Amino acid sequence: MPNTHVAIVTGAARGIGAATARRLAADGNAVAVLDLDEAACQGTVDDITAAGGKAIGVGVDVSKGDQVEAAVARVADELGAPVILVNNAGIIRDNLIFKMTEDDWDAVLGVHLRGAFLMTKAAQGYMTQEKYGRIINLSSSSAQGNRGQANYSAAKAGMQGFTKTLAIELGKFGVTANAVAPGFIQTDMTAATAERIGVSFEDFIKHSAAQIPVARVGQPEDIAATIAFLASEEAGFVSGQVIYVAGGPLD
Ligand code: NAP
């Protein structure tokens, strides 16, 4: 079934967000590529338009309410009512709890949780008006706890409760909300983790792959494919779920 909706993907200048934006556009949606730096969105926008799709780039810090309001209004103005929202923007500020600063905590909770809250609050009105919507939030296998990530795992566990509540509140308007929880995905984020723990990215990938049942690490396209299903019209009876996409069982 073709999907011809307007989608917003945050943190879509690179990594999982960029792959998701490309995939949603390939599925027929017009896509707003949101990221901190508008110029950095251009690569993803160019990929989409070169493939025959429709996209715009919008600069926004998702943790700032006024910027979020303006960005979502601009998307509605330039592309139409956004009814697909992928809350993907993310950062890490890893440290063991005794070294973690208040800034490390606030920055991570601010982008992931506050950012998802602000984006969803700004976009949900369009969805309820259209009586149709798909919200997909990025959680993580780290929601189950991960050394050095007290802030990040709290944020990613929080994303799951946030998602389930959205599913309960917005279901009657034809809006579904689901969380995708990736395991190890090969992006700049996992490259930064390798650097922090002092191993080469190549060794980090090899070591991680050896512990994953499908014997490889994930690629951004693995996550984009799962998000594309949840964003599709035919996924309308799937809501409030957390789908681990980690190459093996997690719950
Ligand atoms: P990434 O390559 O680091 O990309 C994240 C993007 O988010 C960057 O373009 C970044 O912009 C943008 N961003 C950061 N803060 C922002 C803000 N305040 N407002 C708007 N955009 C902002 O990360 P990724 O690996 O693709 O991860 C994407 C999502 O998946 C994140 O939520 C992450 O937590 C989650 N995830 C990733 C993995 C993994 O293994 N990679 C596993 C589980 C979950 P800048 O470049 O300007 O900083």
Please outline what is shown here.
The chain has about 250 residues and is of the alpha/beta class.
Can you offer a commentary on this structure?
Keywords: NADP, Oxidoreductase. Residues 5-183 form the Ketoreductase domain. One of its GO terms (molecular function) is oxidoreductase activity. One of its GO terms (biological process) is monocarboxylic acid metabolic process. With 251 residues, the protein is α/β, with parallel strands linked by helices. The protein has eight helices and seven strands; from the N terminus they run E-H-E-H-E-H-E-H-E-H-E-H-H-H-E. It has helices spanning 15-26, 42-50, 65-78, 102-130, 150-170, 188-197, 201-210, 220-230; strands at residues 6-10, 30-35, 55-59, 82-87, 133-138, 175-182, 242-245. The protein is globular and about 45 Å long. The mean pLDDT is 97. The structure holds NADP nicotinamide-adenine-dinucleotide phosphate. The site of NADP nicotinamide-adenine-dinucleotide phosphate has 29 residues, from helix 1, helix 4 and helix 6.
Summarize the helices and strands and which ones pair or pack.
Elements: E1 6-10, H1 15-26, E2 30-35, H2 42-50, E3 55-59, H3 65-78, E4 82-87, H4 102-130, E5 133-138, H5 150-170, E6 175-182, H6 188-197, H7 201-210, H8 220-230, E7 242-245
Parallel strand pairs: 1-2, 1-4, 2-3, 4-5, 5-6, 6-7
Helix pairs in contact: 1-2, 1-8, 3-4, 4-5
Bound molecules: NADP nicotinamide-adenine-dinucleotide phosphate.
GO molecular function: oxidoreductase activity
Family: Belongs to the short-chain dehydrogenases/reductases (SDR) family.
Protein name: 3-oxoacyl-ACP reductase FabG
